[in-house]
Design a protein that fits this description.
Elements: E1 4-8, H1 14-23, E2 27-31, H2 35-42, H3 53-62, E3 66-69, E4 77-80, H4 95-104, E5 113-116, H5 124-135, E6 151-154, H6 164-170, E7 173-177, H7 180-190, E8 198-202, H8 203-233, H9 238-245, H10 268-275, H11 281-306, E9 315-318, H12 333-344, E10 349-352, E11 366-369, H13 371-374, E12 379-382, E13 398-401
Parallel strand pairs: 1-2, 1-4, 2-3, 4-5, 5-6, 7-8, 9-10, 9-12, 10-11, 12-13
Antiparallel strand pairs: 6-7
Helix pairs in contact: 1-3, 4-5, 8-10, 8-11, 10-11, 11-12
EC number: 1.1.1.336
GO molecular function: UDP-N-acetyl-D-mannosamine dehydrogenase activity
Family: Belongs to the UDP-glucose/GDP-mannose dehydrogenase family.
């Protein structure tokens, strides 16, 4: 049924998906506007950090099953995996999805399948049909016909950074077509590499399912983060408290941190709030708690600086990624804290991120340095619990740890 698949967006989800399809000996054409990413992939290399992905991409490219380019080409199926951020007013920004759909519209042909993987607000899959219709009035879509020329479905990714290759295969997938035939066609595509169960639903339920999964996690993280604020006020060790409370057989409190980041948990709940603002009270409050935590951490740093024995002590912030052991800086609370600190403090500020060699996302007065250089700072702030931080000696520094017991590399 599928000989050629085009994946639009070769980032943290698109590239692993493209490589996985290519590993099943399908011809995969990856599309991305980033020329550096395209060139790197065509060399059989990867431009992101993800265990096992480098070997998968290298094998797919050298075997002739995967190639990348900046302009769309004809294919049997198109998978869209582009960013879906939000605007300053927290409303969903679908410009990347719309641009991706309009870019493939000229090469669409009867019988093609278009699948959206990007986390999106409810109703986005139907908008894809609208955009296709506007660009290609010669083709029918599922919202117009029960037997359309183009099949459209929504199938959200649900993988954990650092385990993407494994979870793409092992995890169950929700396939939400705009018609039963769309669902079946999309299911057939995913069954080429998914060992988990492909669960068929409608597009709106599939869209809401992904949002619900991340909102659930956000609410639970908010409980832990709010608990850390309360414990700080009451002079209680929150890590000890959670350890004790979790000995209850039906209690499992998560670990508080610097906030919540990444492209999913920090974004998706706002899509629900935007769609149903009067009903999503708890979800909104959880988002506000988690969005406040970086500001609280910043005030902790500034207070430590103000009370330090030295005038303008140097500060090293350990960790920039949105979660441990990855290089992804999207919506990272640690990154926001460092840049906000740079705006509020004129002393020397260093950033330590073992998984990133360089970045243009840091304020100009923040220097990205090695672990060894960071350890020389007067004040050290642990913002991300990367493996190996637990092996370092922070006894000579003023230490602010907002992530709890540090992890060894062993």
């Amino acid at each position: 049924m599928f000989k050629t698949v085009s994946v639009i967006g070769l980032g943290y989800i698109g590239l692993p998906t493209a490589a996985m399809l290519a590993s099943r000996k399908l011809r995969v054409i990856g599309i991305d506007v980033n020329q550096h990413a395209v060139d790197t992939i065509n060399q059989g290399k990867i431009h992101i950090v993800e265990p096992e992905l480098d070997m998968l991409v290298h094998a797919a490219v050298t075997g002739g099953y995967l190639s990348a380019q900046t302009s769309p080409a004809a294919a049997d199926a198109f998978m869209i995996a582009v960013p879906t951020p939000f605007f300053d007013d927290l409303s969903p920004d679908l410009t990347y999805v719309e641009a991706a759909v309009k870019s493939i519209a000229p090469v669409l042909a009867k019988g093609n399948l278009v699948v959206l993987e990007s986390t999106s607000p409810v109703g986005t899959t139907e908008k894809i049909c609208q955009w296709i219709r506007e660009a290609r009035p010669d083709l029918t879509v599922p919202t117009d016909s029960s037997q359309p020329d183009i099949h459209v479905a929504y199938c959200p990714e649900r993988v954990l950074p650092g385990r993407v290759v494994y979870e793409l295969i092992a995890n169950d997938r929700i396939v939400g077509g705009l018609t039963p035939a769309c669902s079946e066609k999309a299911k057939a595509l995913y069954q080429t590499f998914v060992a988990g169960e492909c669960l068929i639903s409608d597009a709106r339920t599939a869209e809401m399912s992904k949002l619900t999964e991340n909102a659930f996690r956000d609410v639970n993280i908010a409980f832990a983060n709010e608990l850390s604020l309360i414990c700080d006020e009451l002079k209680i060790n929150v890590w000890e408290l959670i350890k004790m409370a979790n000995r209850h057989p039906r209690v499992n409190i998560l670990t508080p941190g610097a906030g919540v980041g990444g492209h999913c948990i920090a974004v998706d709940p706002w899509f629900i709030v935007h769609s149903a603002p009067e009903q999503a009270k708890l979800i909104r409050t959880a988002r506000e708690v988690n969005d406040f935590k970086p500001q609280w951490v910043l005030q902790k740093i500034l207070s430590t600086v103000a009370n330090h024995a030295l005038h303008k002590p140097s500060v090293a912030c350990f960790g920039l990624a949105f979660k441990p052991d990855i290089d992804d800086l999207r919506e990272s609370p640690a990154l926001h804290i460092v840049n906000d600190l740079a705006a509020a403090y004129q002393g020397k500020i260093y950033a330590v991120e073992p998984n990133v060699d360089q970045t243009n996302k840091l304020a100009t007065n923040v220097e990205l340095v090695s672990v060894e250089q960071g350890l020389k700072a007067d004040i050290i702030v642990i913002l991300v619990n990367h493996k190996g931080f637990g092996d370092l000696d922070f006894s000579k520094n003023s230490l602010i740890n907002v992530v709890g017991p540090l992890r060894s590399a062993h």
